[in-house]
Amino acid sequence: MKLSIAFLFPVLILTACGQPVYQAKYSITVASEYVESFKVEAIANGRNLASVEHNLIIKLGHLPPGELGVCKQTAGQNMIVLSVDWWSLLPALEQQELVWHELGHCWLNRGHTNARLADDSPISIMNTYHFDAQTYWAHYDYYNAELFGN
Q: What is the pTM of this model?
């Protein structure tokens, strides 16, 4: 997920499940909260993550300029790397959006979509560019249904 330069100018807004035992490893403890809420929402929307949820590592790392996070999938292992430069600067809701976006890649095999809603908001959190918490919150229920409905 990349930083949306369009949001930097006006206000300097930073943008860019039967359940088996969960065995993921996290190097950032706060990310575990977002992973658990993702699982709850996935189950509520009829998504079964049993085949993928145990193969996840989330860590902070250095990413190219403007990138906030990336999902790397290799040999049955999912690794999410979150930008060490941006993570602590993002409000909690934008951290959730970022982690859920990357889990959309890693666990739901979703790609990017840059279509827009009628109000010009992104049609999905699977947008290439990370968007602000106000937009995410205004469409929160819609974005969750869209993410897990595909």
A: 0.80
